[in-house]
Amino acid sequence: GAVVSQHPSWVICKSGTSVKIECRSLDFQATTMFWYRQFPKQSLMLMATSNEGSKATYEQGVEKDKFLINHASLTLSTLTVTSAHPEDSSFYICSAKLAGWSNQPQHFGDGTRLSIL
Amino acid sequence: AQKVTQAQTEISVVEKEDVTLDCVYETRDTTYYLFWYKQPPSGELVFLIRRNSFDEQNEISGRYSWNFQKSTSSFNFTITASQVVDSAVYFCAEEETSGSRLTFGEGTQLTVNP
Lengths: 117, 114
Description:
The complex is a heterodimer.
Chain A: E1 4-7, E2 10-13, E3 19-25, E4 30-38, E5 45-51, E6 57-58, E7 67-73, E8 76-81, E9 90-98, E10 107-108, E11 112-116
Parallel strand pairs in A: 2-11
Antiparallel strand pairs in A: 1-3, 3-8, 4-5, 4-9, 5-6, 7-8, 9-10, 9-11
Chain B: E1 3-5, E2 10-14, E3 19-21, E4 24-26, E5 32-39, E6 46-52, E7 59-61, E8 64-69, E9 74-79, E10 88-96, E11 102-104, E12 108-113
Parallel strand pairs in B: 2-12
Antiparallel strand pairs in B: 1-4, 3-9, 5-6, 5-10, 7-8, 8-9, 10-11, 10-12
């Protein structure tokens, strides 16, 4: 089945640091990748939709200058949390859709736990 | 706009009991998909089922069953003979086929006690 790999799975860093999270589709090409954020005991909230070769579409309330998304290839999207602060601590999870098949489900990575001290 | 409501925040049962997790959705789309995911404490999302809005047949997979009622906009999930390993947060979600936006419910924390 379709596999999405997310790295790192866990990161702790100091306030003010920028953190990059990678999302890779290992055995399929993904035209579209999605980034979600989940705070403790809450639901998953879509942050942005990333299309290969174009700018990401951000959801209302998500700062695009703080959460930089790059989707330079059909198998890799990255999310960079710039100048991270404790309130950015959360569980970030990506998903990917098979290119050319709009009725295929999203395949999720295992998520990244980000802790900002 | 899409909205998914899981009214049960937490459910606690004893092993071998049957348990039903409720899900009610709102959408303006005529074509959409409904999902259930399991999220164990480790955090990853485990895909359980996807249902097309045109397919109202109920589905059974082992101890899991799903009841889709378009008339009441509900997509309920039943676990028969629950086990401790079923303890997790369960999310219901809806996806617009037009935009591929996936909207999650708030989740139901299921605890199965031995």
